[in-house]
Amino acid sequence: AQSVTQLDSHVSVSEGTPVLLRCNYSSSYSPSLFWYVQHPNKGLQLLLKYTSAATLVKGINGFEAEFKKSETSFHLTKPSAHMSDAAEYFCVVSDLSSSNTGKLIFGQGTTLQVKP
Amino acid sequence: DADVTQTPRNRITKTGKRIMLECSQTKGHDRMYWYRQDPGLGLQLIYYSFDVKDINKGEISDGYSVSRQAQAKFSLSLESAIPNQTALYFCATSDRASNQPQHFGDGTRLSIL
After folding, report:
1. How close, in Å, is residue B89 to chain A by CA atoms?
2. Which of A62, A74, B32, B71 has its CA 20 to 30 A from that of B47?
3. Which SS3 state, helix, strand or coil, does residue A61 take?
4. What is the pLDDT of residues A70-97, one digit of tens each?
């Protein structure tokens, strides 16, 4: 069975410093992996996705993530945090066993706080 | 106008009441989904629909039902609401080429007393 673990429930950084949000996954098949962001009182927005192409995936707003099969990780990074990045971030996995059902497995979320 | 619109945005009701949450989309997408979000649990899939005549149960369908009235409309019902259904509910859509929800509504915050 597939699963996702976000290793930090809360991350706090200063504006202008790097961001690292950690995610490990478990999947029996070649996984598709995603990062979503959720701002307060808003729906989710897709940041980026990995679907077996390049292992370094670039997303919107300067975010990127690297798929590391040996470590079963898909960590999200950004070189320099902005105040507007403060939100909740979800790591999500979908693998071949569920790709035809639209079913996704969500991590529990990481709240990113950005301090001035 | 939002691509995915959920109504109502907030609702407070009592145990045992029937509740309907509505979702409409202007994306022209075939696939629609209902998710529930609880603190610390991420999002859980309740029901999904690949087209008007195709509806499927998700991970946590018990206590819920859905209706796909048209390609653009997908409603979620709680026939007899109970307090542990208090949560934030999201509708989402995707096209046939995508295996994940592409667009989410802003959510419905439902409280059951």
Report:
1. 10
2. A74
3. helix
4. 999 999 999 999 999 999 999 998 855 6
